[in-house]
Write a structure and sequence with these properties.
323 residues; mainly alpha; A middle domain of Talin 1; two-stranded antiparallel sheet; two-stranded antiparallel ribbon; 15 helices; 2% strand; globular; K/Na/Ca-exchanger
């Protein structure tokens, strides 16, 4: 039953998130809100709503380390898996406008998060710091876009050229919210049951099963971009997603309750997240591409990390996410 709950939860999150973004973007468009603001707020929050609700649900359900594992694991997967796997199909270009600047912001956010984690827990004070930094990032992004870089946002695929009617958009938003709520609850409940059944730490389930599941939309988008040979913004989307995960989702999740940071995160996982982020530096600095060899290397590193997590979590070879 737990496996069914996890599968159903992931499916609900995937489709409900899409419906929520479509409906919310349509309502915002019909209300006369500029595409720039929609891209920076409605789409950004909507596409990350599943991760956000999973984090809040995990904290309120008494499994806060699952929420922490989801954020850290998603950021690692976004780089090593979401960039590495599509690179086997087509070169992932790293020459989008202001990509290097956003990468620098992601590194700063990662360093800040690690520093806060070494206080022993992420509670409301730490979450407030993260949310203030996120607000500053949104203001900075809006100012930069208004200067002359709005094209990346206004051409966002999630913003409909022809918005849905008010009635349909409202149904999509409400249905999306309900679906995300139920999906998050099923995913968290099933994950916790699996963790306890196999004697696996909840944080390890968050780093693996939940993190990979909530990263599937980004992976699907990147794979489609690689198939269509349109990889110019894929890396930028990954960087933006990682910034949002750290500053917004972790900040909001910590408002629901204190999230303790296990020693294993301080010793290994947080540094793997930072190391993964640093892997993108030479590609962005040289405005080069992540080719097949580099992509394969990223996948190998991700496989090694998954193996480490299985061993450290006292898991067996039959653990569900290895199927």
């Amino acid at each position: 039953m737990a496996y069914f709950e996890v599968a159903a939860g992931l499916i609900l999150l995937l489709f409900s998130g899409d419906y929520l973004v479509r409906g919310a973007a349509s309502l915002a468009t019909r209300a006369g809100i500029s595409k720039l603001i929609i891209g920076l707020t409605v789409v950004a929050f909507g596409t990350s709503a599943p991760e956000m609700v999973v984090g809040i649900d995990a904290v309120m359900s008494g499994a806060p380390t699952l929420a922490l594992g989801n954020i850290v694991g998603s950021n690692i997967a976004n780089i090593l898996l979401v960039v590495g796997l599509p690179a086997l199909l087509a070169p992932m270009t790293c020459d989008a406008p202001r990509l290097g600047r956003n990468l620098f912001i992601m590194l700063l956010a990662t360093a800040l998060f690690i520093a806060l984690a070494f206080t022993g827990s992420i509670g409301r004070p730490q979450g407030f710091v993260l949310l203030v930094c996120f607000a500053l990032f949104l203001i900075y992004s809006a100012m930069r876009a208004k200067v002359g870089g709005a094209a990346e946002i206004t051409n966002c695929d999630e913003i409909p050229e022809k918005p849905d009617s008010y009635a349909l958009a409202t149904v999509l938003v409400l249905g999306g919210l309900v679906g995300i709520s139920f999906g998050a609850d099923l995913l968290v409940e099933g994950s916790v049951v699996i963790a306890r059944e196999y004697g696996i730490k909840e944080s390890v389930i968050g780093l693996t099963l939940v993190a990979i599941g909530t990263s599937l939309p980004e992976l699907a988008t990147a794979l489609m971009a690689a198939i269509r040979r349109q990889c110019d913004v894929a890396v930028g989307n990954v960087i933006g997603s990682n910034i949002f995960n750290i500053l917004a989702i972790m900040g909001i999740s910590s408002m629901a309750g204190t999230i303790p940071v296990p020693q294993s995160f301080l010793n290994v996982d947080l540094w793997v997240m930072l190391g993964s982020a640093l892997l993108l530096v030479p590609f962005c600095k040289n405005r080069s591409t992540v080719g097949k060899l580099s992509g394969l290397g990223m996948l190998v590193l991700y496989g090694i990390y998954m193996f480490y997590l299985v061993e450290s979590g006292n898991a067996t070879a039959t653990i569900p996410f290895t199927s």
